[in-house]
Design brief:
mainly alpha
């Protein structure tokens, strides 16, 4: 499929304010959002889900763990590169990012439980997650945070599907963090 990667000038009028808000927040509009520029309702929903996850009680580093775990599980080269780029600003250690890119857990008990829970939710679609849910709760997370992880999984699955289906090119900001699932993921 070949869909246009919109700019603020080519996007639908109702999408332009969203483009401006994303540019203010990130400095640019990632391609995974820009392809939705002709669909203001879809773009609003996507940005709303992203905002809901961003407003969760999980720390920025924990949110990046969820997003990397889901993106690696879904073999999304675009989103793994993007969240590798965002991870340092979120306070996630380089060693944790490298481990996750390789399909491993961070060497931190709490973040490891979070990664396993997010990955299992993704691969099993919420089924057969009892052990991972228990480990997640035993690591100090709350039942409400389990729901927040589900929001993160849903948001990241949306962007993973978009990027994978459209084979989106990496944004310039993400290019240094390119990831090939055939090489790096276990």
């Amino acid at each position: 499929m070949n869909l246009p990667i919109h700019t603020a000038q080519t996007a639908a009028l109702k999408s332009r304010a969203i483009f401006e808000a994303i540019t203010q927040a990130r400095g640019f509009v990632p391609n995974v959002y820009a392809v939705y520029g002709s669909l203001p309702g879809a773009m609003n929903g996507f940005v709303g889900l992203t905002g809901a996850f961003g407003d969760s009680s999980l720390s920025p580093a924990e949110r990046e763990v969820v997003q990397l775990a889901v993106s690696v599980a879904n073999r999304c080269r675009y989103c793994v590169a993007g969240h590798t780029a965002f991870a340092a600003d979120a306070g996630l250690k380089d060693a944790h990012v490298r481990a996750m890119r390789d399909g491993q857990d961070p060497d931190d008990d709490r973040l490891g439980a979070l990664a396993r829970f997010a990955r299992k939710l993704t691969t099993e679609r919420g089924r057969n997650c009892a052990k991972e849910r228990t480990d997640f709760l035993m690591a100090g997370y709350s039942p409400d945070q389990a729901l927040e992880v589900i929001i993160g999984v849903a948001n990241k699955t949306l962007s993973n599907m978009t990027a994978n289906l459209l084979e989106l090119p990496l944004d310039e900001n993400f290019a240094p963090y390119a990831w090939d699932p055939k090489v790096e993921a276990a």
